[in-house]
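User: Hi! I'm working on a homework problem where we have to compare a predicted structure to a textbook description. Could you give me the structure for the chain below?
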Amino acid sequence: MNHLIIFFLNSKIFISLCVLCLALSTQFVVGVYNLNLLLIIFFGTFLSYNYQRIIFHLKLKKKLFNSWFVRNNKLVFLIVAAATIFLFCFFKLKNITKLMVILVSSVSLFYPILRKIPLLKIFLISFSWAFSTVALIYFENNLDFNQSYYVSIISRTCFILAITIPFDIRDIEHDRFKLNTIPLVFGVEVAKKIALTFLALYLCIEYYLYLQDFAFNFIISTSLCFLYSFFIVKNLNKNVGDYYYSFWLESCSISLLFFLIITSILL
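Assistant: Happy to help. Predicted structure tokens:
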């Protein structure tokens, strides 16, 4: 069972599920559901993260890459299957959505190069996640690009920034001689405060969005998501293990959908 959990986390299936849940939470709020787009987002995320992994191993000696390829033949099979499903779903999208998917995919494609620009790494991730989990849903479902859309994009970006900064804290020693990240520039404690500030901004923006429509169930679910995420980020320290990041911190994205479902049932 432990081996299965490790594979689930390390293969990037779990993080793909997290992005899927964020997209589904947007669909929940706007009241439209599109399975084909959800599959695009899930498998696109899976392919994007594993593409980064392949690029990393290709930078190593060819012998080491071949060794990794053999050891992870199950993952390679999943990547091929995911690419097949992704392409099948892609051709079913509307033309405008196809263009948007190509746009966000380009960010992933050139990420290994773009991430070297000082402080850009975290904003590339936030843009990709926010665009994928909000904008694509509006494009594919012909929703009005009104105030709610732009506010939702800003809100989602703040939330993702808040839960992404801690990963830069985790990677601070690895990034020290390669990248300029927020923890390296401002220090770990200040970086945590910046992350918590983005979480507070997320909460305020969501309140502004939902109070106009008196959507109290959305307000409550957002508040619970905020409290859960605040607790996870606040309690980061040097003694937490990899599971704290790869599971608990990532689960903040799932918590929003979870609380949306619970409040819709109970209220």
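For your comparison, note the following. The chain has a mean pLDDT of 89. Residues 35-58 form the longest helix (24 residues). Good luck with the assignment!
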